[in-house]
Amino acid sequence: MAAFAALAAVAAATNVTYHIAKPWANSTHMLDLRTNRTVEHFVSWSNGTHFTDQATNQTVKHFDCDVHQGKASAHFNQTLQNLHTEHKGSAGGARAAKSLVGKSKLSISVPLYIHIITKQSEAGTITQAMATAQAQEMNTAYNPYGISFQLQNTSITANDAWAVAAGSDMDALKQALRVGTYSDLNLYFHTDLSGGMLGTCTLPSQVQKGTPPALYYSDGCNINANTMPGGSMTGYNLGKTAVHETGHWLGLLHTFEGYACTGTGDSISDTPIESASTNGCPTNPWKNSCPTVAGNDPVHNFMDYSTDACYSKFTNGQVQRMSTMWTQYRAGM
Ligand SMILES: [Zn+2]
Questions:
Q1: If you measure from the C-alpha of residue 66 to the centroid of ligand 1, how many angstroms do you get, rounded to a whole number?
Q2: b/e for 183-211, b at 16 or more Cβ within 10 A?
Q3: CA–centroid distance, residue 303 to ligand 1 (Å)
């Protein structure tokens, strides 16, 4: 980190353009490791894995979550296609916000199970109090939209392989720890989650009522435990990564899905189309990755890659989408 901070200071002071073999970045562009494409990074400094947060001047890791339509089931993607009636990004396309919130508030109550998984050497570092605070943070984010989470139980496990959850260990730990039905949210918090990810999650798909839970054991979200409230992850330790991942569990895609200024994006009409994920909280000037299309990027949206302090909202269209997906896939299972 010290090296990154030093490089950042140099870049900020001299505005130099420089190249790093791989990952690659200069003062305006970087290699996006998720897509292997060169994209504008909208931050003063980035090396492809870390960037300088203009709000705090700290060196911060790029959010990486790796949930996208290519990982969704055919059933989920067909549902999206059926729901998508307005072509995003088209000239004159309707973008009027729906008036769902405040008019007919949702009432979705989700039983929540939290699983803390540490290495043996880190046993005791992630606490029940952090799990309780995490559940409260979820409710702070979702309650204004009529969605609530009831923490049922917290399991705490010390297991070196499961703390990383690489390869078949991921399956093994979920088969051992997952509880409840397809209506129950299981959040796994790992001290050393593999792949450099802050988190990842499964999107909902078709499960027949009465299906044994053993057949959908993989359902749930895996999150770096250092993102919990009070955790050690710079830029992401207010518990908002779990809010983001749970958005996927409820059927939302990233606001930058497709990484393009044309096409269907996240298939929601009131999230401005966005061709690059957000780093930090670029509001001065406001990030606008699609300048030829109306609207700046939705940097405060929970389904972007912004830092925790920047996250503050879902759109009405996203809330409507979560309601539709909940009813179709998870309610009453
Ligand atoms: Zn995500």
A1: 6
A2: ebbbbbbbbbbeeebbbbbbbbbebeeee
A3: 6
Selecting among 40, 86, 137, 245, the annotated active-site residue is 245
Tell how far CA 198 is from the center of its chain.
Answer: 8
245 catalytically annotated: yes
Distance 187 CA to ligand 1 centre (A): 14
- As a whole number, mean pLDDT of residues 72-81 equals 94
Residue 305: which of 278, 276, 286, 265 has the closest Cα? 278
Residue 313 clears pLDDT 70, i.e. is over it? yes
Measure the CA–CA gap between 154 and 131, rounded to whole angstroms.
7
**Three-class secondary structure of residue 261 per DSSP:** coil
Average pLDDT score, the chain: 86
pLDDT of residue 284: 87
Segment 227-238, tens digit of pLDDT: 999 999 999 999
pLDDT reported for residue 96: 33
- Whole-number Å distance, alpha carbon 257 to ligand 1 midpoint, is 10
